[in-house]
Specification:
Blueprint (H helix, E strand, L loop, with lengths): L1 H11 L18 H7 L9 E2 L5 E3 L2 E7 L6 E7 L5 E8 L23 E4 L3 E5 L5 E5 L4 E5 L8 E3 L6 E2 L11 E2 L8 E3 L4 E7 L5 E3 L12 E2 L6 E3 L2 E3 L8 E6 L5 E6 L19 E3 L17 E9 L8 E6 L5 E5 L5 E5 L4 E6 L4 H12 L12 E3 L7 H14 L5 E4 L20 H9 L4 E5 L4 E2 L5 H9 L4 E2 L2 E2 L2 E3 L2 E4 L6 H9 L13 E5 L26 H4 L3 H16 L7 E3 L2 E2 L7 E3 L7 H16 L5 E2 L11 H11 L5 E3 L17 H14 L1 H14 L1
Parallel strand pairs: 22-37, 27-28, 27-40, 28-29, 29-35, 35-36, 36-38, 38-39
Antiparallel strand pairs: 1-3, 2-3, 3-4, 4-5, 5-26, 6-7, 7-8, 8-9, 9-10, 10-19, 11-19, 12-18, 13-14, 14-15, 16-17, 17-18, 19-25, 20-22, 21-24, 22-23, 23-26, 24-25, 30-34, 31-32, 33-34
Helix pairs in contact: 7-9, 11-12
Length: 705
């Protein structure tokens, strides 16, 4: 039996060579995206009810209508912060769910000196900063113009792409599994049904004979356009179609940046045919061995973009933050206008017309928070591998760093350190004395990081699961706790959108609850998109609900941020006088308040080294500053030159970690021999020589916000 279990375990660790794009939906596979991307000709034209335009308590309020459906309510709120205007479009007689906790506050100080004037065709707000906001009545648009400028920097709905589906409950059903060729616990191998031994991160079942599932990706849409089938699952939203969309233009702009996270260029590429044929997608996913130069969704989502018009003598940067955490697609036109479309929610956009790019970044930080100042050690070099196999291995690696005189600050442990992927535990055979191990590292000034993922093994002997289940803390699939497959096998997922669940999770990090931990132990959050190996697109289906009964489709992109937040709050609860350090793979706007982020499962290829810089720059202009890419590449084996060059480049990125897949050869700094060891030692030493500068820069970022 032991041999059989080892064989199955080895089988589950088998990997593929590249991402299988057929597992992930495109715009064409997604009804709401198709509807918005090809609107009727001419598109619906919204008109402002001029008689109802009024400035109430510092907010310009009005109604717009397409003369077919009930009017929509629009509010235009100029902030006291120069050149920031919050615009919201919501239904008049229905309240939709909106994301809490993204913004620092739901109420911001408004420009109380803004003056309203009206003509027969528009309303104008003259702001105390010198900016003007014009609301054109027909067709409806909102324009933000900087002081003394001849044309606006940002225009909302210039192309009349405002579209707001109102929903229906007629015939709505929950998400369901498509009829399978095989019975429960069996899957198709291309010829026959075989018993499932487990699932892997590529979303395919593994069988005991060493083969893997052959999945037929059925794609279909019902006649009414409301029901869609993809990847073995049928989705029919219970509220019917509730998608929203709008366009944002930047007159005169010659480039645009942001929209993290995508493995694409720093400057956004047009998506309407000249460079990409697909829009940028925001739907946080565990993309196994991701491709480059594509607008596919990855691990994180920040729908923030900046456009630049070099011809302007001042205020040559403009921006928009589109605050919607449901699945979203963004088309970029050749003139860098943007078209945002989301599956659900409301339209909430913050328009920016700053005097300088730095002012724009500060304005965005005033909305969602500045990057938290990390502890000094977190800016040093981090050494990681899936996995350092036992305490002897940890001591050997640490000792070799000392012997080779290579500075480092943190040694990391991946999932194999646990007792059967039960987080907050240790494998007692491999790590019998974790406290002494950590204390030995701490005696030389080094810390340890362990991984803690959101999927909880469904095992009644596992105290974390037993408590979460008894307290009713898991996400729900109908009336039952959601049950999906991840590293431990059958797993459930706490509802981190719930404050009480986050508090319970934070308490898991006390030294009493996390036995074997010490105050020098910090945390790594992975798989928090959330990753579900046997779910559609390697995540959970959209009809799963949180404890408030809100469907997963509404808050999907928030889950990773909430998970990192709960973990960071746990470390602050454990040690009130220490700054926490938590690394996360998934993120949304506001994640910068809770720790660091990395670019996920890259590869040991020169192309991935080249891709790292534009990805990190895109994340940085979206407010995520403490970011990095795994030096050397996670998948595959770098040669000596690639490893040395990657370390040299990564030494100048904010988060600096070497990491490797379990199938990769050992690649600690000395693994390649001379002269590579000397090159790497010098690069890491240069990082430490500049550490006071790095820390000063991080401090200035926090203070300036």
């Amino acid at each position: 039996m032991a041999h059989s279990r080892l064989a199955v375990a080895a089988l589950l660790l088998a990997t593929t060579q590249a991402v299988d794009r057929s597992k992930f939906r495109t715009c064409q596979d997604t009804r709401f995206c198709r509807v918005h991307r090809k609107p009727p000709v001419p598109p619906p034209s919204y008109k402002v009810d001029a008689a109802g335009v009024a400035l109430v308590d510092g907010i310009l309020r009005l109604e717009v209508s397409d003369q077919v459906q009930p009017p929509l309510l629009v509010s235009v709120a100029p902030h006291a912060d120069n050149g920031v205007v919050r615009t919201r479009v919501v239904e008049k007689d229905k309240v939709r769910w909106e994301a809490p906790d993204v913004l620092l506050s739901d109420t911001f100080e408004l420009d109380t000196k803004a003056a309203l004037s009206k003509t027969t065709d528009k309303a104008t707000l003259k702001l105390s900063s010198g900016h003007t906001v014009d609301v054109t009545y027909e067709p409806f648009s909102v324009q933000l113009t900087p002081p003394s400028a001849k044309e606006p920097s940002v225009v909302l709905n210039q192309r009349s792409l405002l579209h707001f589906e109102r929903g229906t409950t007629v015939g709505a059903e929950a998400t369901q599994e498509v009829a399978s060729k095989c019975e429960k616990d069996y899957a198709w191998d291309g010829n026959e049904c075989k018993k499932i031994a487990g699932y892997w991160e590529d979303g395919l079942a593994r069988f005991e004979d060493g083969t893997k599932e052959v999945k037929e990706y059925v794609k279909s849409t019902s006649e009414d356009g409301l029901e869609e089938t993809f990847s073995g699952h049928t989705d029919r939203p219970k509220h019917g179609p509730t998608s929203v969309g709008i366009d944002v233009s930047f007159p005169g702009s010659k480039a645009a940046f942001g929209l993290a996270e995508h493995a694409s260029s720093f400057a956004l590429k047009p998506t309407t045919g000249s460079q990409y044929n697909e829009p940028y997608r925001f739907y946080n996913l565990d993309v196994f061995e991701y491709d480059l130069d594509v607008p596919m969704a990855l691990y994180g989502a920040i729908p923030l973009a900046w456009a630049v018009d070099p011809s302007r003598t001042s205020h040559n940067t403009a921006g928009v933050f589109y605050n919607n955490p449901s699945e979203t697609f963004v088309d970029v036109s050749d003139d860098y206008s943007l078209h945002f479309v989301s599956e659900s929610g409301v339209l909430e956009l913050f328009l920016f017309a700053p005097s300088t790019p730095a002012e724009g970044f500060s304005q965005y930080a005033s909305l969602t928070g500045a990057q938290e100042l990390p502890p000094l050690f977190a800016l040093g070099y981090h050494q990681c591998r899936w996995n350092y196999k036992d305490e002897a291995d940890v001591r050997a690696v640490h000792g070799r760093f000392e012997e080779e005189d290579i500075p480092y600050d943190v040694l990391w442990l991946d999932i194999e350190h646990t007792d059967g992927k039960r987080y907050f535990t240790w494998d007692s055979n491999l790590f019998p004395d974790p406290v002494t191990m950590q204390e030995d590292l701490w005696s030389t000034g080094r810390r340890m990081v362990t991984i803690v993922d959101p999927h909880i093994k469904r095992d009644n002997g596992y105290v974390v699961h037993k408590e979460a289940e008894s307290k009713g803390l898991y996400l729900k699939d109908g009336s039952n706790d959601f049950d999906g497959w991840c590293w431990p096998g059958s797993s459930s997922y706490p509802d981190f959108t719930n404050a009480k669940v986050r508090q319970w999770w934070a308490e898991r990090f006390s030294l009493e609850n996390y036995q074997g931990s010490t105050s020098s132990l910090y945390i790594w959050n992975d798989m928090n998109e959330m990753s579900v190996f046997n779910g559609p697109e390697v995540t959970m289906h959209k009809s799963v609900v949180n404890l408030d009964g809100v469907e997963h489709r509404e808050w999907h992109n928030l889950y990773g941020m909430y998970f990192q937040r709960a973990t960071a709050e746990g470390l602050m609860l454990r040690d009130a006088n220490k700054r926490p350090f938590v690394l996360s793979r998934s993120f949304y706007a506001g994640s910068q308040r809770w720790g660091a982020v990395w670019t996920g499962d890259n590869a040991a290829q020169w192309s991935h080294l080249k891709q790292a810089a534009p990805m990190l720059l895109s994340m940085s202009v979206c407010g995520l500053i403490f970011v990095g890419a795994d030096a050397g590449g996670f998948f595959g084996d770098p040669d000596a030159e690639l490893m040395a060059r990657w370390i040299q480049a990564a030494a100048y990125t904010p988060f600096f970690r070497g990491h490797a897949h379990h199938d990769a050869k050992r690649r600690e700094p000395w693994s390649f021999g001379q002269p590579t060891t000397s090159y790497i030692r010098r690069a890491i030493a240069d990082r430490y020589a500049l550490l006071p500068y790095w820390y000063s820069v991080e401090s200035c970022v926090e203070i300036s916000q």
